[in-house]
Structure formats: structure tokens, C-alpha cells
Amino acid sequence: MNEASNPKIYPPSNDFVAKAHVGAETYETMYKASIEDPESFWGEQAKTRLDWIESFTKVKDADFTLGKVKIKWFEDGVLNVAYNCIDRHLEERGDQTAIIFEPDEPGDGAQHITYRELHEKVCRFANVLLAQGVMRGDRVVIYLPMIPEAAYAMLACARIGAIHSVVFAGFSPDALANRINDCQAKVVITADTAPRGGRRTALKSNTDAALLHCSDKVRCLVVKHTGDQTTWIQDRDVDVKAMMAEVAPDCPIRPMGAEDPLFILYTSGSTGKPKGVVHSSGGYLLYAAMTQELTFDYHDGDVFWCGADVGWVTGHTYIIYGPLANGATTLMFEGVPTYPDASRFWQVIEKHKVNQFYTAPTAIRALMGQGTKFVEGSDLSSLKVLGTVGEPINPEAWNWYNDNVGKGKLPIVDTWWQTETGGHMITPLPGATATKPGSATKPFFGVQPVVLDATSGKEIEETQAEGVLAIKQSWPGQMRTVWGDHERFEKTYFSDYKGYYFAGDGCRRDADGYYWITGRVDDVINVSGHRMGTAEVESALVAHAKVAEAAVVGYPHEVKGQGIYAYVTLMNDVEPSDELRKELEGWVRNEIGPIAKPDLIQWAPGLPKTRSGKIMRRILRKIAENDYGALGDTSTLADPSVVDELIENRMNK
Ligand code: 6R9
Known about the structure:
Layout: H1 14-19, H2 24-36, H3 38-49, E1 60-63, E2 70-73, E3 78-79, H4 81-85, H5 90-93, E4 97-102, E5 111-114, H6 115-131, E6 139-143, H7 148-160, E7 163-166, H8 173-182, E8 187-191, E9 194-196, E10 199-201, H9 203-211, E11 219-223, E12 237-239, H10 240-246, E13 256-257, E14 261-267, E15 275-280, H11 282-295, E16 303-306, H12 313-325, E17 329-333, H13 344-352, E18 356-359, H14 361-368, H15 373-376, E19 385-389, H16 395-405, E20 412-415, E21 449-452, E22 465-471, E23 481-482, H17 486-494, E24 501-509, E25 515-520, E26 524-527, E27 530-533, H18 534-542, E28 547-557, E29 561-570, H19 578-591, E30 600-603, H20 617-624, H21 641-648
């Protein structure tokens, strides 16, 4: 039986409902209010959840019309994000732990950083930035692992009004250089080396390599984290910890406009180079705080653990900004789920008595593959809510999570959202929504999803619908623009379906109005919950001297969700070999990072193209999926025989 068409339903328990912030009725009333009168709804939320230096008089000014797209919230309000995440909590919870840092090596001992300590560290870090000449509006690239300094650096930027752009520490020097150059950063912050799963990544030397391609004015701030030896360039490199010890322990906040950018985060799209997604100070923070509290039913005193990396949006919103704005205790984990062994996640939960745990389906599948013995040995009784994010969760993984981690008793929130949306968009609220495994269920407050017919672009009115997912109205956490390219912003998100925000996912809505995300409908693939533009991998491949042409598609992968399948046409005089295959894998690793390494490379003497020279990816996808029985119409191909050749030599047999 197809689970999706007749799924088991999991209502919240009465005990849970009794203590929850939002129950089913409240959800309905509040949701209705948020859609019918967004101005009052969000005005009220912004006043109660955030502290303003000057309050706003205007709540919303948004337009999705192509050519004049504009998204503004609380426009004339003035606030400071770091103040909201730290200073305002000092009186009441100065001695409460703000951040628990759990290092890669379990034997190294955790750190508990109180709000008061966080305040001092962030102030000192901010003074270091100021001493480097960083001013309001300047860009600061943060290329750090999951260490407290990453949080200090982000909040220090927010304190002085600089715009941070965190680059995932798994990215290569080239990827780092592209981002530093695109946002014209004044400073890059890195660490000597980064331990992860018992191995070390040489971040400083990656940064040195990246900076060869950047302006020589870029300063390099180095956090000496492991003490490993690195090269040192006088006049360019700065020892952050040494300087933090010298500067003043206090630093005034800079009042910022609600619409001033808080950060830029680069993300992959279906075309071109990664885009710098710009998020605001006021609207973003409000949305981060509200979703963190309500989606996870966070209560004062709880320990919250989002297992993402700060290099992704999930880490921004649910390790740093959301929890800290709410005065929560947030856990930062430097390691990986399988080191020293596959019980690490569960050990960390037991050790720190974690109440809410948020991870990705790919991590669940990887741990599932190790059997249940690793989870059985840990005391998970502190857990109250489980969450997932990043990709659709398959029922097997959902059931495993539910049975073994939730012991059949905990609500699981499957949260659909994107880098662009700032926070959760479609998600259960644990005290309000009965869940169905594999469905992200219902919209969050203020979010108006619609299902559009993919070809006509018309809204499907019936409850039961299948098509592409779009959003009708702005919400405060929405991205504001693409850094330096507003036209690209409009074109990417508002031009395919006029009047709506569209960001590339397909979906189904069932008879109960529940949403089921079916995956990307564009040339973006989702590898272990990480977004990867196929165009990016292709351009890395063709940059290799022996490659004439390349086409990249996704294919189903048991653990990663999707794997990367590359069809490569070599230059005329080049012979294919296993060594060359390895060389290309290493090449892509170096060009982009390990997450972009192709899983399968097929030598393709020719690619299926239309007579106008367009590669027919639909066909390549089918072959990669081993589903070539249904190739559809191939009559428009310039040379249909290439298809037989590709099928014959396919890699995914
Ligand atoms: C937060 C984040 C966004 C893309 C998105 C969609 C996929 C995320 C999902 C999900 C199904 C979920 N996605 N959450 N698909 N169910 N609960 O992941 O941001 O890295 O920008 O990726 O991830 O395809 O469009 P980002």
C-alpha cells in the first residue's frame, strides 16, 4: 500500500497538548488572523517579541510584481540584533547558559557559555573588528568550523552593523574566494585547523589559497583553535584570541534600521554562480525567534539542539538567532554523528539533557544503517520534540526516528523551508498538528502556500492538488534581494509564476490540506540535505583540461537522498580510465568541496541534444535513475543513437 495515499496519522498526546504554547484551536484562530490582517498580526508579534530602539510605524510594504519586487517589514523601526540576542537577557538570565559547546573529541569536555560571558566575548570580538576598520555595512566573511567563535563573530558583526557572510568550512579555497570577491569582504575570519570526526581540515591554509585570488586589502583574522602550525603573513593575519584579550570588554551597540541587511548567505540555484541571499535585521530576527519557539514548542529552561552547521541557513536561524533571541540554551556540536561511533548524537543528548533535537533525514538514514544498538545504550528521556529539515523524509527514516529516538511518544516536526525563506514555512506545530510521516503538513503563521499548475501557472483551487509550490504573500523572514543583483532576485523567484514567490519545489496537497513536498523541479539537486546546482558541478568539470563537455543530474541514493551522476565527454585525444575518473573526482572536490564530488561518472562519447543543441536532461535523469524504459519522446534529438550507447554503459545498474 502506498503510505502517502493512506498514511498513518499521529495526533499530539493529551499531555503534550496541555503544556504546549499552541494547540489546534489556537493555531486555527491565529493562522486566520495572520492571513486576514497581517499588519496587525505581525505588528503585534514584532512589538512583543523584539526590543526596539525606535518602534516602527509601518508594518509591511511588499510587492511581488515582476519589475517592481519589493519586500519591506517594520521599515522605520530601529533595533540591534545582538542586543536582542544578548543584552536584553542579561538582567534576568545573565548566569544562564546561552551556548553549550560540545567538542569533536568527547573527552575534551564541554563548555558552558553564560549570557554574561557571551556578552563579553561578543563585545571583545566586535572591538577587534572595529580595530580592523570594519564599519557599518561592511562585509565580513566567516569561514569557521562549529566553535563558539563562529557565534561570537556573527553576533559581533550584528553588534556593529557589519554584514556577515558565513562560508561553510567544507568549501574549497576557490568557493571561498568567489564569495569573498562577490560581496567584496573587508575581512575574512578563519581558524588554524578544524577537527571533525577525528580528522583536521586546514582552514587557514585554505584561506591563504583563497586570498591569492582576492584583493590584497582583505585582512585575515585567525582563531587559534587547535594550535596547529600555520603560515603567518605579517601585516595581513591577525591573532583574534590574542587581540580579544587586549581590547575593551564592552562595546556599544549600533542602532540599525529593521531593513538593514544582517547577513548574506550564498546558495545554489539552477543557473550561474551561487547567489548571495540577503536577510534583514528586523523581519528575519522576528521570524527566527517566533518559529524557534513555536515549531519546537521551546519553553524557558529547555536545552535546544539544532545539529546543522552554522555554514547553512539552518545553523543561522536555529543555532544562533532564533534560540538566542528567545533567551534559550542552544547547543553547538563540533563533530559528526558517527565519531567516535554511531552513538555520538544520542550520547550528546544524554549528556546535556537535550529537550528538542533537530537534524536532517540524511543523518537519520546514515545512523539507521548502523542498527539500533547505538541508540539503545543512551538515555533519551529528556527529549520532548524531534525535528527534521533539508529534504523530504522517507517513511522508513521517519519510522526509525519515531520508534528508536522518540520511542513512539514524541512529536516529529518535518519542517519545509529554504535559505531564502529565513525560517520554517510549512511545518507541524507539535501541540496543534497531527502528523503524517513524510508530510510537512500545514503552513506557519502568515504563510499562504498555493499549488500552481506547472504549465499554466494557474492556482489550483481544489484542496487535493498536485503541482508546484508557491507563496502568495510576503512574510517577515523572506529574503530581500540577491546581493548586488536585484534583477536576478526578481528573475529567479518571481518571473516563472507571476505574482508569486516560487523557489523551485514541487508538491502535492491532500484532502486534509496537508502539503507533501516532492522535491526540486529545477536543476538543483539535494545531496545529504545540501543544495547543489548541477550547473556548478558541470562548470567545475569542464574547467578540467581533459573534459570537453559534462552534464550532471541527481539520482536516488540510499543515504544521501540524491547522489551526483555526471556524464562526461572527454577531449578527442583523451582515453577514459579509472585513474582519470579519480582525478576528476578530486578535481571537483578541489573546485567546490567534498560535498560536490560526483558519486558516479559515466564516460559519454556523446550527450543527447536537441537539434538546437540543448542537452535533454530529462533523458539523462531517466538513465541515471535506471528508469530508461520510459524515456518519453526522443524524436527531437539530433542523434537518437547516443541514448542507446548511454543506456548500455550506464553506471547505476
Ligand atoms: C532549510 C534548508 C532548501 C530546499 C527546499 C527543498 C528542500 C528543505 C525540506 C525540504 C522536503 C522538507 N527541503 N526542507 N524538502 N521537506 N522538510 O534546507 O534550506 O539548503 O536552502 O534548501 O531543501 O527542496 O527547496 P536550503
